[in-house]
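Internal ticket - ligand job 367, 5,10-Methenyltetrahydrofolate:
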Amino acid sequence: MMVGYFMRRMTVSMSWQNKALRQRSSFTTMTHNSILKDSSHGCQILMSPTLVSLDSPDIWASNNHHTHYQFSSNRNFSNEQTAAVINGQSKIACEVRRMEDSIGNVPGLAVIMVGDRRDSQTYVRNKILACEEVGMVSTVTALPNDCTEHELLSAVASFNVDPSVHGVLVQLPLPQHLDVRKISDVLSLEKDVDGFHPINIGNIAMRGREPLFISCTPKGCIELLIRSGIEIMGKKAVVIGRSNIVGLPASLLLQRHHATVSIVHAFTENPEHITREADILITAVGMPNLVRGNWLKPGAVVIDVGTSPIEDASCELGYRLMGDVCYEEAVRVASAVTPVPGGIGPMTIAMLLCNTLDAAKRAHNFI
Ligand SMILES: NC(=O)C1=CN([C@@H]2O[C@H](COP(=O)(O)OP(=O)(O)OC[C@H]3O[C@@H](n4cnc5c(N)ncnc54)[C@H](OP(=O)(O)O)[C@@H]3O)[C@@H](O)[C@H]2O)C=CC1
Ligand SMILES: Nc1nc(=O)c2c([nH]1)NC[C@@H]1CN(c3ccc(C(=O)N[C@@H](CCC(=O)O)C(=O)O)cc3)C=[N+]21
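stdout (structure tokens):
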């Protein structure tokens, strides 16, 4: 009971704070051109679209993988890309409206956050803002840093049985005394919009199986590649990092898209020898400037997932985000690079909306 009361109070205060953040939301300020050309080096900057469409090519159905990925060129794509993005953005909001008009329900997302990390607060606010913008309902449960495992799991369990909540997300990282594995023991598989459940990850790994949800960040990486006209099939891809949330599912997804995948991690010797082979490099470590220009094959496509908050008093929030890639060097070598911020972060949020919409449609049997 106490947890429920606390949750409701926090919901109110967070949504108030969100209004203040609206002005600086990457969703509202982002350019509609998701590919910008860096004129000085001929490298494309793969910006995240404001929102992506719901009709990403269906790779899961067998035997269709020769049709969808034959984009002719990753150059001169900007006009088509803009059209697709605007179309995609309106599509999620339209689907939410269609659902409300037909059955009187809108998708609902519950976010549980433990502790007071500033960067986590920013990411969560961005998620809530994004929900608002497409007409979804959202709620944030903020638990104190020293909350018990029981409190956390009770919060998850209460959302499992709340019919207005279709997706539940526990923001990571958790304080050390809490075990992330316990969450997936409790969280309803049908509400796992983060794609963390072992069954969802396992089903990405196995041929002929369909996960209910694909983790948002890896899904966003693939979506951005596809939307940017970058062919994955047959390419050499390297993923740096092998976490359950990003690296592992990213490597599995690239494989499902028929790339030849290598994984680099903390114990890999001479990682730069491996990354220099990559046509596509996805890096998810959390170490600023780990990837230097000389780690890249000329013409490579570089997706920088890393977001490390670095103290910077001159910034509004007292910190700025840095990716894993030395951006200034990468743009001189790569054919395309995602910036931080403005690259994969907003894609992650867009995929969360897609997953939440899917969850709601499934829950209400709404087609
Ligand atoms: N933009 C977005 O939407 C998102 C961004 N992120 C960001 O991505 C980054 C990674 O997140 P997450 O996967 O959760 O982090 P984890 O800390 O869970 O995983 C980091 C991975 O990096 C590997 N690693 C550590 N040091 C090195 C090194 N020197 N060389 C190569 N690999 C190394 C680790 O290897 P090992 O397994 O051997 O320990 C591990 O697999 C963070 O900056 C996070 O903030 C995360 C999620 C979403
Ligand atoms: N259960 C769980 N799921 C996650 O998806 C998850 C998580 N835990 N823990 C932390 C990471 C990180 N992450 C980001 C989300 C949005 C931005 C984002 O919006 N970035 C903006 C800028 C942010 C800002 O406004 O400063 C951008 O890159 O343009 C970044 C990073 C999700 N993560």
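Auto-summary: Residues 217, 240-243, 245-247, 264-268, 271, 284-287, 305-308, 344-345, 348 surround NDP (ligand 1) (CB under 6 Å). The first strand starts at residue 35 and ends at 38.
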